[in-house]
Amino acid sequence: MLLYIDPGTGSMLFGILVGIFATLVFFFQGLIIKLKSGIGSKRIKDDGKKADYVIFSDDKRYWNSFKLICDEFEKREIKAEYWTMSEDDPALSEKYEYVECIFIGSGNSAFTKLNMMRADICLSTTPGLNVYQWKRSKWVKWYVHMYHCLGECTTYEMFGIDFYDAILTTGKFQFKTIRKLESLRGIKEKELCLVGLPYIDAMVERKEKKVLESGVRTNENKNILLAPSWGESGLLKKYGVSLIDTLLDTGYNITIRPHPQSWKSENDMMDNLINHYLDNPKLIWNKDNDNFDVLSNTDLLISDFSAIMYEFAVIFDKPILYFKDVLILDTYDAAWLGKPEWSYDILHEIAMDISNVSLDKLGEIIKNTIESDPFEDGRKRAREEGWNCQMHSSEVIVDYLIRKHDELQSIENKIENK
After folding, report:
1. C-alpha–C-alpha distance, residues 329 and 19, integer Å
2. Are 236 and 167 part of one and the same domain?
3. What is the per-residue pLDDT across 258-314, written as a single tens digit (0 to 9) for each?
4. How many Cα atoms sit within 13 Å of 28 on the Cβ side?
5. Residue 79 is part of a domain; what is its CATH number?
6. Nearest-angstrom CA–CA distance, 121 and 103
7. How far apart are CA 382 and CA 384, in angstroms?
8. Same domain, 57 and 183
9. Is 178 in the same domain as 239?
10. pLDDT digits (tens, 9 = 90+) for 301-355
11. Are residues 181 and 239 in the same domain?
12. Residue 185 sits in which domain range?
């Protein structure tokens, strides 16, 4: 007698097997990292100083997510520390009185400092706490994860948020996904708080200011932006020259903005592509830390599974084309659920899937989509569901952090009194 397993159960079992395999991989990776960090590295002395609030950023590109929060701490005259792994982080040039911005180094020395952090609360957008090099410090009471873009935690590498104590969400749809993952893995439920997204607030404010100062841009030749994600599933890796040549043949102005990680992890591919088009004046490569200018000047966006699509839809309200079939879920949290739920559902309403379209038809599709955009209503829904606490999310976040700090202090006082 053959054993029958229904597709839903089979999918769940496959996700669990992938999870077990990934757990073993991460365990051995962590062991190797631990051995490496103990060899030839200087031991950072623990000075015993404790901060009430530490904000940690692993890259300068996330300063646009944290600036409004630091500004809010400064406005309220509350002391906080901002730790960055980028020596040229714009935060280090800020003239704050109450917020101290600190470069903590890079590589093993930075992670050693992070793993010895003394703080009541640590806020970060970095996934993978307690999975890779970054371990929970025994001297930190509460770890809080904040999204740096619209979307879901399921598009993080597996177990990306499992070891945080709290998650600050941009929309209520994220509650459902997080609870599903917790249930499947049998882990403790995290504290969830709806706060919105400071990065979107700041971008919308800049957009409105630009429109007031210079009006709406009306150019003859449209600007097309190719902004893919990175890795084996990314558009540049999968299509490369064939896609770029097709875009150049359309006659539009073409800008390519690779994912920042491509410049680090796929540098050979990037060097080859840039050298291939070195003398082509019709193509611009963009690697600005701040993506506001390139997005605001774009008439149509082409992407794969990058969160930039949701930002472009919500902030700039312009058409998007995407390749649905490129994302391989095996190493992502989405493998446990079968798909990134809200992200996939809403994507059909804000963008056109061109996965099965012949590349020689791309020029015609771009022209038709710009002239007759069918996704305005979908973008409105994405804005309402994905971006809450609009234009005051930094205030809501700092309110939460202060409330949680007071709660932790109260618990500590009760323990001491006993």
Report:
1. 12
2. no
3. 988 899 899 999 999 999 999 888 899 999 888 999 999 999 999 987 888 988 999
4. 5
5. 3.40.50.2000
6. 19
7. 5
8. yes
9. no
10. 999 878 889 889 999 999 999 987 666 667 778 778 876 677 778 888 999 999 8
11. no
12. 51-197+390-417
The residue type of 101 is C
pLDDT digits (tens, 9 = 90+) for 97-115: 999 999 999 999 999 999 9
Structural domain contains residue 29: no
How high is the pLDDT of residue 261?
A: 87
- Work out the burial of residue 54: count CB atoms within 10 Å of its CB; fewer than 13 is exposed, 13-18 middle, 19 or more buried: buried
Give the global pTM: 0.80
Which tokens is 309 given? Answer: 């699509």
Note whether 192 and 231 are same-domain residues: no
Name residue 320's beta-bridge partners.
301
Interstrand relation of 300-303 and 283-285 (parallel, antiparallel or unpaired): unpaired
